[in-house]
Amino acid sequence: MSKALYNKTTVFQNARIVDPSRNMDEIGALIVDNGVFMASGKEAHNQGVPEGAEVYDLEGKTILPGLVDSRVFVGEPGEEHRETIESASHSAAAGGITSFLMMPDTNPVIDSVSLVEFIKRTARETAKVHVHPVPAITKGLMGQELTEFGLMKNAGAIAFSDGKKTIENSAMMRRAMTYARDFDMPIMHETQDKWLNSLGVMNEGLLASWLGLLGIPKEAEIIPLERDLRLANLTQCRYHAAQISTAMSAETIERAKQKNTKISSAVSINHISLNENDIGEYRTFFRLSPPLRTEDDRLSMIESLRNGTIDMIVSSHDPQDVDTKRLPFEDSQTGAVGLETLLAAALRLYHNGSLSLITIVRLLSTNPAKLFGLDAGTLKQGQNADFIIVDLEEPWVLSLDMLHSRSKNSPFEKARFQGRVLQTYVKGLKVFSIC
């Protein structure tokens, strides 16, 4: 990321300022100096314009903390044709994401100090946004031997995950949680029982039968999740369910949280925006893992966001090239790009009254920053000036050629949105502008 910062005071006036870290939603100003926030909200407006400041009038626009996406897959190293750290950062900036957590599913797997250092170095040199490596829990994502937690933490890891893989061995999972607790590091885990999941390609149910496709039962997600939650209670580690998709999973987490405050969870934007019916005529861009569920499950995910059971929304950005998607549904690769549509899709819940704007920003920015210990998710004085300017009302339609990602496998092709990122700033530096 470029080291250039604003070297003079900049004032953004007359904007709607939303900052969940201070429960703020008000008309005011934002003052930035040398890459950090000096003041925001009515307080900043009342201070007036500092002498010599550069001033922008943002009447009708909204300023939010930069978004924090805690589940992003990148092809570098090994599959740069799908996505590089640089291209992912361009895509993130266009979507208003100023920090993202990079999963270890690369080739080679991010499971050593040298690979963590490679990601950090490449991000420093090429990325427009903050990139935080999340190395593997087990070597090679094989579920058999733990990686060096302490050494990788010292190298810059902020959590551990086996990415798309689920650790089957309960003793291994307990050991991983114990080590993570000792190093005060979160364990992020995808829960998919591979034996129940192995042949299925979509949600098990009547629709799968109609389409003649093998289904994946909801129990494939819930059984390993229930095991993990019991082990998390046993070890008292910081446990994060990487993405859930069913009402039963949400109910299980809600019960677990009543006993253990160190548990958190996420849902992907796809699973609160889409359901299994969107697969339609075998549309492979809608083949995801976990699969799109029923409409009742989708509504349950939204309710769980509203009541605090689920702590954050992620893009689950997973770029795939055309060759792996333009295949028969059962042969196609799972995954969808999502960095650039994360906020726009989430704003649908604001416009239809499902969630307040401050709640959406909390789920997309403040909560993940807090849970993973990042200097982000806030407009507080003295913090890095990572923020975005948004037009909440602007209508637009997504075409795939608009995407900055190297891959174009978006389930939101031709989708209509209301609300758009206009500009993105990282440490006071403009890293994206729509015009």
From TrEMBL:
GO terms for cellular component: cytoplasm. Keywords: Pyrimidine biosynthesis. Residues 60-246 form the Dihydroorotase catalytic domain. One of its GO terms (biological process) is pyrimidine nucleotide biosynthetic process. It comes from the Bacteria. This is Dihydroorotase, multifunctional complex type. InterPro entries: DHOase, DHOase/Allantoinase_Hydrolase, DHOase_cat, Metal-dep_hydrolase_composite, Metal_Hydrolase. Signal peptide: none annotated. GO terms for molecular function: allantoinase activity; dihydroorotase activity; metal ion binding.
